[in-house]
Amino acid sequence: MTEFLTLLRKELWRFWKVGFQTVCAPVLTALLYLMIFSQVLDNHVQVHGVRYTAFLIPGLVMMSVLQNAFANSSSSLIQSKITGNLVFVLLTPISNLQFFAAYLLAATIRGAVVGAGVLLATCWVGGLTLAEPVWVLLFTLLGGALMGSLGLIAGMWAEKFDQMAAFQNFLILPLTMLSGVFYSVQSLPEFWQTVSRVNPVFYLIDGFRFGFFAVSDASPWLSLGVASAFTVAIGLLSFSLLVRGYKLRT
């Protein structure tokens, strides 16, 4: 337990000591999205009877959670690999499970901190409610764990920063941006609705938004089931690669 807590503190301190970059910058980005889209669409669009700006906020919060949870575990692992200090962690008596749990928990905490920052910075918007807070918490934890696990996979796979950037730009960014953050998928043509429902991030966004307004494009129970299944599957894959020492001990 001591080894786990030490590694967790190290991972938390790693992002917190540069909080202006890792916390404040994502909050500012979300605020810019909000100002631009709300100015253009707020007076013209309602979604499920909800004012557009209020509808947009939960999507921006969850998008921030997901992107920052991924960034935390992936950047930490790739930096440790490239600088060569990962060996000092691997030589300690910490177990694979403790290593995995520390990285995953730190990623989830960073995602939650940034998400809370975005929510606090936008809570002045009228029409924002919190109908089902338990669902908000559940999907925050699932989103952070899913992207934290995916970040570990990316960090193990990547050998250079440009490979990590490619993973983020061609997988994580499209998954998060094309998941209903800025729109209801019901407004899309049938083909694109089908494509959206194949995207697991859609269920995270939709279930998280249900916690605020008690309305959603898909059943919240379906969203919970799909999100949980993907989180477990990616988590098991990530942990199995970690146990094998995939690209960590070579």
Main beta-sheet strand count, sense and barrel state: 2 strands, antiparallel
> So what's the overall shape?
globular
| DSSP E strands, number | 2
Low-confidence stretches: none
- Please state the structural category: mainly alpha
Characterization of this structure:
The chain is mostly helical and 250 residues long. It has one domain. The chain is 77% helix and 2% strand. The chain is built from 10 helices and 2 strands, in the order H-H-E-E-H-H-H-H-H-H-H-H. A two-stranded antiparallel ribbon has the order 1-2. Helix 5 packs across helix 6 and helix 6 runs antiparallel to helix 9. The longest helix is centred in the N-terminal third of the chain and has 32 residues. The protein is globular, with a radius of gyration of 18 Å. The mean pLDDT is 88.
